[in-house]
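Proteins fold reproducibly. Next comes a concrete instance:

***
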Amino acid sequence: MSDFKKYHCLECEHIYDEAQGDPDSGIAPGTLWADIPENWACPICGAPKSFFKLLEN
């Protein structure tokens, strides 16, 4: 079972999956949420990292 988590954007519901990362924004697969720079923004709507919340299973 994977320990990777998912976070969703409260603005547009985009899902950031730690297992997949965000390669288009330079975030490699396997990058943990805590390791993403604070200036990263949602690739869909541009909302700041602070607009994302942990997606509970």
In short: The beta strands are 6-9, 15-17, 52-54.
